[in-house]
Amino acid sequence: MSIKRALVSVSDKTGIVDFCRELSQMGVEIISTGGTSSLLSKEGVPVIGISDVTGFPEIMDGRVKTLHPAVHSGLLAVRDNEEHTRQMQELGLGYIDLVVVNLYPFQETIAKPDVAYEDAIENIDIGGPTMLRSAAKNHAFVSVVVDAADYSQVLEEVRSGGDTTLETRKRLAAKVFRHTAAYDALISDYLSNVNGDPLPERLTVTYEKLQDLRYGENPHQQAAFYRKPLAAQDTLTTAEQLHGKELSYNNINDANAALQIVKEFEEPAVVAVKHMNPCGVGIGESIYEAYSKAYAADPTSIFGGIVAANRIIDSDTANKLSEIFLEIVLAPDFTQEALDILTKKKNIRLLKTGELNAARNRESQFVVTSIDGGMIVQQSDVHSIEASELNVVTDRAPSEEEMKQLLFGWKVVKHVKSNAIVLAANDMTVGVGAGQMNRVGAAKIAIEQAGDQAKGAVLASDAFFPMGDTLELAAKAGITAVIQPGGSIKDEESIKVANEYGIAMVFTGVRHFKH
Ligand SMILES: NC(=O)c1ncn([C@@H]2O[C@H](COP(=O)(O)O)[C@@H](O)[C@H]2O)c1NC=O
């Protein structure tokens, strides 16, 4: 068999003229629709208009042009089926051996800010996916191309053997069904959201591969990195790597965690992360000051860590960063001097995120956790709190400085694995107790890590204290103020201990579990 007739109908016309010209020179007849046909004619490629094949005009602003039996029988006929062949001859129909289609730009359309609903609907392609599906189903005989990246391989095979190989047609068919499935998923997602139904009876999210990863969490685990079709511009999936080795699975997980935390802050902030937990967080007047604090918070754990900043990295900060081994530095950007300093280090990875949108961090989106046999979906934890919303439950209210540190600690503890306790003083974390099976255990770790710095520090707890023991421990360590959700049946026990020691305690009424 050989390819004699091709149907070409593309929205993205990149490379289409050269592709069709070569096909035409090899004797392939090209049938095409409105805009594609005009372009090919203009460029001198011989082309037959779709209406000459269907005997029907392209109507309704292009809504109906290829949706015709003359097209679909030509695509779907089983070439070695006698009955199909007889019907084709009887009705005067011709085979179509190759379909080249890419679809109306639905994704690009809905990505536009304030896109009109009617505009989105008009960009739902109907005829294109129908042809793609017909051709892909009949891949035993028909070649189908949805991606310009495949033009060269198709040309090569037609040039050498008159047709593509069955292996290629199978690969192209599978690619088409992935493509149309993703296209429909985006449409259904858009419409579900417009209808205010983001968790419908069937979830059809799709992702596009950014890269294969060398391995997963451990070297014996296969892994890859995927992005949502409409990922925001200040995420790890859109960051530009300026220097260093390829990101690993664990790098991506940790860098994502660091980015989520640093986006909590409007003021200059730096977050150091190890194993998904912040080991040091600092804020300051400058990014240098913020990094100095994040570093001082825990100079041991930061080694080999991931550092995220929410301001451009300057040369002073770069010099300080380069004093230790860090896996990754993520920032909106780097000055040229900073890059010159940091790129001297072979093993550091530098990621430019572009401007971070702290406000977007407070917009809810859905996050997925896979479980064996399925997944659970929830809104992301975007809750933030103001001083005026806190409920002072002790005899003493926090001082202005204590209140500042409490709110800082609360922003950080939200991102620490539960059970979580964070101690803060002077705009930095001084102790972090993460991922413990009991709250008092988390507090012990945070207090021990803080050492002398626990004296005069404040304490933030991601969930309420089930009994008074954590407060007792905190008081003995010299903690002066506490922020926690409240709501335990033994709240009174904790309040009593706090009052005994002159601790100021506030309830948020909100819990920040993170598992
Ligand atoms: N309605 C149809 O019969 C139809 N047939 C092909 N299309 C699409 O029309 C586009 C190409 O249009 P043009 O050649 O006019 O620039 C392609 O994206 C193709 O997928 C159609 N448009 C939408 O459904």
TrEMBL record:
Coiled coil: none annotated. Pathway: Purine metabolism; IMP biosynthesis via de novo pathway; IMP from 5-formamido-1-(5-phospho-D-ribosyl)imidazole-4-carboxamide: step 1/1; Purine metabolism; IMP biosynthesis via de novo pathway; 5-formamido-1-(5-phospho-D-ribosyl)imidazole-4-carboxamide from 5-amino-1-(5-phospho-D-ribosyl)imidazole-4-carboxamide (10-formyl THF route): step 1/1. One of its GO terms (cellular component) is cytosol. Pfam families: AICARFT_IMPCHas (PF01808), MGS (PF02142). PROSITE patterns: MGS. InterPro entries: AICAR_Tfase_dup_dom_sf, Cytidine_deaminase-like, MGS-like_dom, MGS-like_dom_sf, PurH-like. It catalyses: (6R)-10-formyltetrahydrofolate + 5-amino-1-(5-phospho-beta-D-ribosyl)imidazole-4-carboxamide = 5-formamido-1-(5-phospho-D-ribosyl)imidazole-4-carboxamide + (6S)-5,6,7,8-tetrahydrofolate; IMP + H2O = 5-formamido-1-(5-phospho-D-ribosyl)imidazole-4-carboxamide. Residues 1-146 form the MGS-like domain. Keywords: Hydrolase, Multifunctional enzyme, Purine biosynthesis, Transferase. The IMP cyclohydrolase activity resides in the N-terminal region. NCBIfam families: PRK00881.1, purH. Belongs to the PurH family. This is Bifunctional purine biosynthesis protein PurH. It comes from Paenibacillus polysaccharolyticus. The lineage of its organism: Bacteria, Bacillati, Bacillota, Bacilli, Bacillales.
